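Posted in: Structural Biology > Protein-Ligand Complexes

Title: Requesting predicted complex, flavin-adenine dinucleotide in pocket

I'd be grateful if someone could produce the 3D structure tokens for the following input. Sequence and ligand are given below.
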Amino acid sequence: MKKLVFLSFLVLLVLLIWQLGWLDALTFENLKRQQAELLAWRDAQPLLVSGFYLLVYVGITALSLPGAALMTLAGGAIFGLGWGLLLVSFASTLGATLAMLVSRFLLRDWVKTRFSKTMQKLDAGIEREGAFYLFALRLVPAFPFFVINLVMGLTRMKVWTFWWVSQLGMLLGTAVYVNAGTQLAQLQSPADILSIQLLGAFALLGVFPLLARKGLSVFKSRQALGRWKKPQHFDANLLVIGAGSGGLVSAYIAAAVKARVILVEKHQMGGDCLNTGCVPSKALIRSARLAHEMRHADHFGLEKQPPEVDFAAVMDRIHSVIKAIEPHDSVERFTGLGVDVRQGTARLLSPWEVEITLNTGEIQRVTARSIVLATGAEPLVPDLPGLEQVDYLTSDNLWQLRERPERLLVLGGGPIGCELAQAFQRLGSQVTQVERGARILPREDQDASQLVMQYFRDEGVDLRLEHQALRIEVDGKQRWLVASDKAGEEVQLPFDRLLVAVGRKPRLTGYGLEELGLLPDSGKTLDTNTYLQTLYPNIYACGDLVGPYQFTHAASHQAWHASVNALFGQFKRFAVDYSFLPWATFTDPEVARVGLNEQDAREQGIQYEATTYGIDDLDRALADGQAYGFVKVLTVPGKDKILGVTLVGPHAGDLIAEFVLAMKHGLGMNQLLGTIHIYPTMTEANKFAAGHWKKAHAPEGVLRWLKKYHQWRL
Ligand SMILES: Cc1cc2nc3c(=O)[nH]c(=O)nc-3n(C[C@H](O)[C@H](O)[C@H](O)COP(=O)(O)OP(=O)(O)OC[C@H]3O[C@@H](n4cnc5c(N)ncnc54)[C@H](O)[C@@H]3O)c2cc1C
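-- Reply #1 --
Done. Output follows.
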């Protein structure tokens, strides 16, 4: 409404100016004719004339009306070069900034909602190189300034950046015009001001910073490479360091396209996902779910059985699951695929040379045209006083546990902490989970977190939110975490074992990144461009080492890009795109997501409509005794285009796949609704969400007529 009022006001203002014929008076001939009068007026009231001139100039540019060039000439003609340049420079910048803000206020939300993907890319580009592009656009007179103002308003460029880059970029052109204005008498027409040579010089000046920036990055890469001697021949087309999710896929792709590929793994094939991450955690969750179901067997008409948990047997099962999956990632399988697997520790000696200390002790040196770093991440251990006194657990060593902790304290409310906290509680530990934020799973929407928290509390997890861990204290066999609660009071939280799950940090040290100058600032992941190239154009990286999403499928997605770019980048390179990357947290209820959720949409100022379908109403969920959770779909207002989905409930990680496919291939709610889903399945929840959306968008007018038609037919 505010926007409509403002737009109407602007339109009326422009119409009024038009009607009064003010713009018609702004001609080169009029300016020449009235120069003497204007000069006399300026001499009589210099400040008033300057102020009036400034106001008119700002008005013209802010409203994107034609006449700014002539006003600039007038500036020189009336005020001379010095004062004229100063006035015009500030007036034009202020006017341009206002025009940019008008466009932002009126159009940005609308454009962002309709073209969210394009706008995300544009904003990312503006964040990286916006100042350079704006500067080039300001200097190259081929682009009308009012268009630049309007387009920049659609982006997320900071107002201050827009201001200073515009003022600097327009200064030269402004000076030329103001100077020409001082020579008004000699000019026959405005066309005399800009010669082809001058335009060419401006264009060159405009693209110079961009070229300089591109050149600088090429220079930096060349300089980085130049320090090293490039081998004449290579032992491999591609060398991959790390055989986790990222490394295995990189090596697989290289072998599939018949490249010679060496894969080095120092520890266990399969990396974190197989050995300490996804696989063991999901196997643990399965046992925990069964224990939970046994406890509640009476809900299904069976005698309820408090489970006798043989924790060592649970752990044995986990290791047998790992064993069952191991062949998929094994040395034998990859050797069979044509990958040269070497078990040992790799260390970069140069951008092309790697030293491998084999597990047998033998040291080898190999060269490769390109390298993919897929060395993963490890648990982040906070600098918590007293932590060293307790034999704390992380996701790395948890799987060696043979005895169930009676009291387990889980530090951290992220996905890993939550999955493990619930699993241990279900297996009979008394779990206390400490989170410094106001809720667990903070990346998800409030309603998703709330539902998970409700289940945690119902199952007996002692959730301590807004608790900041301060120190660990030990007294004989007693140990506790001291934390400060919401009120700032210190509380003691006793435990038998402590599980640290406060995040994961990339593995960056000990394999040559320091020597090659590749170490990022502390706390950051390894720097790459969108093609996943590091500072050295032939060294690529993927997976948890680079982030931003630390998931197995994200690592695989990146690995495809890294290896294809490494092997075929001289022909075509592929930029990695995370637009439709889904993820799930395997708590009960599961929480799965793709695209935007409400909190992200609000943060990014994207308008949306939310349609929620409650799974508590779904036939199959009721039959299964799992009637809880919801499907929440965000769509473009008034359209069926899907912006994002949050799914909470049983099998959410599986159900989300339909939405991922729909979003990836541009299918909307109408198509989902028109797709046959098997009855009775959980996937019907997706269709019913689409049905809810359709109902909310039913054409009421048509339905009223239809009702009349049917009544008439009775
Ligand atoms: C408890 C837990 C549960 C998880 N659950 C899920 C889940 O359900 N779904 C999901 O998608 N993701 C999950 N993840 C995340 C997932 O495990 C990671 O995102 C994934 O393993 C990252 O793969 P990567 O290839 O980047 O690294 P990694 O799997 O860590 O592999 C890196 C490998 O590099 C090797 N290496 C390092 N340095 C060298 C060197 N110098 N020389 C030779 N080898 C080296 C390491 O030994 C390691 O094997 C979970 C993680 C944890 C911890």
